[in-house]
Amino acid sequence: MAGLSTRHLLGIKDLNRNDIEKIFETADNFKTVLNRPIKKVPSLRDVTIANIFFENSTRTRLSFELAEKRLSADVVNFAASSSSVSKGETLIDTVNNILAMKVDMVVMRHPYAGAGIFLSKHVNAQIVNAGDGAHEHPTQALLDAFSIRERYGDVAGKKVVIVGDILHSRVALSNILCLKQLGAEVMVCGPTTLIPKYIGSLGVKVEHDLRKALNWCDVANMLRIQLERQDIKYFPSLREYTMMFGLNKQILDSLDKEITVMHPGPINRGVEITSDVADSKQSIILDQVENGVAIRMAVLYLLAGQAV
Amino acid sequence: MNLLIKSATVTDPASSFNNKVADILIKDGIIQEIAADIDGEDIEIFDAEGYHVSPGLFDLNCNIGELGLETKEDLETGTAAAAAGGFTGIALMPNTQPPVHSKAEVEYLLNRAKNNLVDIYPLGTISHKREGKDMAEMYDMYKSGAKAFTDGNRPVQDAGLMERAMLYVQNFGARVISYPEDISIAGKAKMNEGVVSTMLGMKGIPALAEELMIARDLYLAEDTGAAIHFTTISTAHAIELIREAKRKGVNVTCDVALHNLVLTDEALMDFDSHYKVKPPLRTQKDVDALIAGVKDGTIDAIVTQHTPHEVEFKAVEFEVAEYGMIGLQTALPVALSAGLSPEMIIEKMSVNPRRILTADTAAIEHGANANLIVFDARSEWEYNKQNNRSKSYNSPFLGQNLKGKVLLSINNNKIAKF
Question: Any CB–CB contact under 8 A between B184 and chain A?
Fold first, then answer.
C-alpha cells in the first residue's frame, strides 16, 4: 500500500497534489464500500485510534468515529474542555497519558491554531488534525474538494467562492490551500471586518458584494457564522449579516447560471443560508456529509499504512 | 581588584583612546593608566591582543523575576547572565508582582543588588499598582533611585493619565518610557499581522497598534515638553514617525529589541513559542528599516528585553505560551550577527542607554572607575544549557554556535572571567 508523503495530517500544507489525488482515489473505493450491505472492511484491525476533542463537535467526531469503525479500528473517545489547560494538565501530558494505554493514532480537535503541529513534535503518535483554531481543518477541505470533483468530474478550472467569516475559519484556509493545489480559482466574500487583510497573499480574489461573487462562481461554499468564535463584535447583528451575506432562493434564481451550493454544517437556517436553498437541487450539503466518512476512511487508511 | 590588560583595542566612541591599541592598568577598580606599553610587575596580566576593550554594556529593558517571579529569574542568576553577556548595568522593567510602584520596591531591589558587579536601575511604574488609572508616587521612587517611569508591558491606554505623567515627571526631571501598543487595536492577537499570520490562521497584531500609540505619545510629548523614550519599537513606519518628530525637535529617544533586528515572523511557521515575543517579530521590510534606523541614529539604543520563563510557560500551545525570550548572555553575538560594528554596538548598547537613563557613565579614560569589558568579536562558542547563566532557558539561540564572546567584565572593583 503506497502511502502519503507525510506521517501526520496536520494541514493541507502537508500534502502535495499526488497525496490529494491518492486520497480521492482511495475515497472512491471506500465510498463504494459504504454503499454495500456490509459496510465494514478489516483494514485497520488492531489499530487503536483516540479521538481527542478539546472543543465541542458532534458531526466531525461522529464522522471520524464511523470512518474508524468501518475500517475495523479500535476507537476511544476523549472529550475535554480547553479549560483543562488552566486546571494544570498540559496538552502533552494529557495526550501522553492516553498514548501510554497503547494508542496508535490520535485524531485531535483543539481551539488553538498549531496545537497539532506542536503536539507532533512532542509525542510519539501519528496525528490527524480535526481542526485547530482558525488554522486548518484538512479533512473538511478534502471532502469539500472531493464533493466538487464528484459534481463536476474535476476541480481544476472551477470557480469557488467561500462566503462568510473568513477570519475565524479553519475551513476557509484549508479549502483555499486545497482548491488552489488542485487548480481551482478561489474567491472569498464576507464583511470587511472578517476578511484577513493579507488574504490576497494566498492567491485568492476578494469580493464584498455577494451577488457579484455568486455571478462569478460555479460553487458557493457558505460558512457557518460562529459568534462564539468572535471575542468582540465584528458586525452589529446577525440580522444585518443576513441582509448582506445571506443566501436565499431569490438571489439564487436571479443568477445567470445554476451554481452549486455547499455548507460545512451545521447550518444556521435563515442566517447564512435559507431553508429553501439548503434543501434545493443545487445544494450538495448532504453529499458532503456522506463523502466525509469516505474521505476520513481514506486518510486514516493511507496514514496507517506508513505507521512504521 | 588589580589587573593589567595588554594590547587591547579600545572601542569607545566617547574616549580619546578610541580605536587605539593600548595597555590599561587597573588598580583598586580604577583605571590608573592607559598607555602604549605599561610594564606589569606583581600584577595579574590579561593578554587582550586582537580583542576589544569597551565600557560595560547597559540594558535599558530587562526583566528579572524579582519581585514575585523568582522562579523565572532572581537577582543572582539575572546579574550573572548579565555579566556573562558583558552588561555592567541593567534597567529593570517593573513587570513584577507586586510591580515596582513605590519606594519600598525600589529600595528593596537596590539593597538586594548591593556589592554586585552589575549595577541595577529599577524603573518605577507610572500608575499605582500598574493599573493604568492613577499616578504612582513617582517622586518618592525617584528620590529612592528610580530614574525613569513606565508601566512596562502593560502600556498606559488612558491618554489623560499619560499626559499628566509627562507633566508631573518634569517637576524632578525624570523621563517617561512608553512601550507603544494600543490594546484595542492589537486585540487578542499573538503575532504580527501579515502573510505569515494569514497562512497560520492566526489573528495578527497590526503595525497600526504600535504606530497609533507612538503618534499619540509624540503629540503628548510635544505638547507637554516632556522627554519621552519609546522602548522596543518594531515597525518600519514607527521609525518614520520618530525620525520626523526628532527633526521637529521633540525630545524623543527610542530603542529596539535585539531579536527584532535579526528575526522575522517567518520563524513562527512551526508555531515555535520560543519566537513568541511582544512586540511581535515583524517582516523583513521592518527588519531592514530597523537596521537602517539604528545606523542613521533614529534609533538610539538596542535592548535585550531579557524575559525569562520556566519551560512550563513555553512548552505549551503557542496561543497560551508566555511572551518573551532571554537575551542578556547572547546580546553581543546577536548584535554582531545583525551586521553592526563593535563601535556601533558600544554606542547603542552602552554609551547612549546610559545617557538616556542618566546612569553613571562608563568610559575608558584615565582616572575613571573601571567599568569595562573585554570581548573577542571573532571567536565562536556554543551557547548551551551548561554555560547558560540564566535560571530559564527560553532562548531560540540555545544550542547554536555564536560568533563573538565576552571574556572579561569588570565593574565596582570586581571582575568576572568567561
Answer: no
CA distances from B66 to B75, B92, B142, B356 (A): 7, 9, 19, 24
Residue B215: CB atoms within 10 A of its CB come to: 17
Query: Which residue type does A220 have?
Result: A
Hey, what's the cell of A140? 473538511
CB B107 within 8 A of CB B144: yes
pLDDT along chain A (308 residues), means of 10: 86 97 97 94 95 91 97 93 63 89 94 95 94 97 98 98 96 98 98 96 97 98 85 89 96 95 94 96 96 98 78
Query: What three-state secondary structure class fits B44?
Result: coil
Determine the Cα–Cα distance for residues B406 and B389; give it in Å rounded to an integer.
13
User: How is A48-100 classified by DSSP, letter by letter?
Assistant: EEEEEESS--SHHHHHHHHHHHHTT-EEEEEE--GGGGTTT--HHHHHHHHHT
> Structure pTM?
0.95
B270/A197 CB distance under 8 A: no
Handedness of CA B100, B106, B110, B111 (dihedral sign): negative
Would you tell me how many other CB atoms lie within 10 Å of the CB of residue A257? Answer: 8
Mutate to test the interface with A, among B191, B274, B317 (most CBs of A within 10 A): B317
CB proximity list for A25: less than 8 A, separation 6 or greater: none
How many residue contacts between A and B have a Cβ separation below 8 Å? 76
Q: In sequence order, what E strands does B201-269 have? A: 204-205, 228-230, 252-257
